């Protein structure tokens, strides 16, 4: 007689779209979902990225090849943002969960240098695209509390950082967006994950050299109660949790290594 699998198979055969799944946290989430038996479609900013990501995942999980797919979707252009999102959803079709981890270069800037164009662009991928996604996603989600949308913010939403007024405002705004969407889209669940500093490619994409990145991660890690800045594979566990727990909605999971305590 076989053992019951009441908990370990909760995500088996679930169809999940990971927006921003070509690198960093999104890529780790895609890996974790594949290992949990999901059918995963990753979305990247362009077709080449999507194709190369599918190749990487397939090499790591050759037996799961039939469960891995990729699509491209540019979230950085205001004029095409909504149409690009609807096109992506149409191509992917029905899914059980959508995870939004997409991000662009960290938009820190002195307040004196801010203008409307910079403000809008800073929020295009991180704030406006989740809102447009929520507008159209219900049509493509399987529905009920078994389906969910999970968004991503950052620790700056909980602890301000100098010269981050613009991006910090969007990050904090995502908390309110999540709570509101949990009501507007019910019974579909909507949650938010808030990572602190994470060792991903984003640091290099934001203009840090290898030495600057390593110096920051070492210095920051020494201040954290955990003693180390995590990799994305640790943060991925928070996303798995909110997908599995069918009783959580409108919530933010903070995974910051205790850095907000010191």
- Report the span from N to C terminus: 51 Å
In this structure, how is the largest beta sheet organized? 7 strands, parallel
CATH architecture grouping: 3-Layer(aba) Sandwich
Per the CATH scheme, the topology name is: Rossmann fold
Number of helices: 8
Number of strands: 7
Which descriptors would you attach to this protein?
262 residues; Rossmann fold; seven-stranded parallel beta sheet; 8 helices; SDR_PhqE-like
Structural notes for this entry:
There is one protein chain. With 262 residues, this protein is an alpha/beta fold. The protein has one domain (15-261): Rossmann fold (3-Layer(aba) Sandwich), CATH 3.40.50.720. The protein has 8 helices and 7 strands; from the N terminus they run βαβαβαβαβαβαααβ. Helix 2 links the parallel strand 2 (39-44) and strand 3 (68-72). It starts with 14 loop residues before the first strand and ends in a 7-residue tail after the last strand. The model has no long low-confidence stretch (mean pLDDT 93).
Summarize the structure.
The protein has 262 residues and is an alpha/beta fold.
Topology:
Elements: E1 15-19, H1 24-35, E2 39-44, H2 47-60, E3 68-72, H3 81-92, E4 97-100, H4 116-136, E5 148-152, H5 165-184, E6 189-195, H6 202-205, H7 210-223, H8 232-244, E7 252-255
Parallel strand pairs: 1-2, 1-4, 2-3, 4-5, 5-6, 6-7
């Amino acid at each position: 007689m076989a053992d019951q699998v009441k908990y370990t198979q909760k995500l088996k055969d679930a169809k999940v779209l990971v927006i921003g799944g070509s690198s960093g946290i999104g890529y780790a989430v895609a890996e974790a979902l594949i290992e949990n038996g999901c059918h995963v479609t990753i979305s990247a900013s362009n077709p080449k990225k999507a194709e190369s990501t599918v190749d990487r995942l397939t090499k790591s999980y050759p037996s799961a090849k039939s469960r891995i797919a990729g699509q491209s979707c540019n979230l950085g252009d205001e004029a095409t943002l909504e149409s690009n999102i609807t096109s992506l959803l149409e191509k992917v079709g029905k899914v059980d969960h959508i995870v939004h981890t997409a991000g662009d270069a960290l938009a820190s800037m002195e307040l004196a240098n801010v203008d409307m164009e910079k403000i809008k662009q800073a929020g295009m991928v991180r704030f406006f695209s989740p809102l447009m996604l929520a507008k159209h996603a219900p049509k493509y989600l399987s529905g009920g509390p078994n389906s969910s949308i999970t968004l991503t913010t950052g620790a700056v939403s909980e602890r301000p950082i100098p010269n981050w007024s613009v991006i910090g405002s969007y990050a904090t705004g995502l908390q309110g967006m999540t709570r509101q969407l949990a009501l507007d889209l019910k019974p579909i669940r909507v949650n938010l994950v808030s990572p602190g500093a994470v060792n991903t490619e984003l640091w290099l994409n934001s203009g840090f050299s290898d030495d600057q990145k390593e110096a920051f991660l070492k210095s920051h890690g020494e201040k954290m109660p955990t003693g180390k800045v995590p990799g994305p594979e640790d943060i991925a566990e928070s996303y798995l949790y909110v997908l599995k727990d069918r009783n959580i909605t409108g919530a933010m999971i903070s995974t910051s290594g205790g850095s907000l305590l010191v």
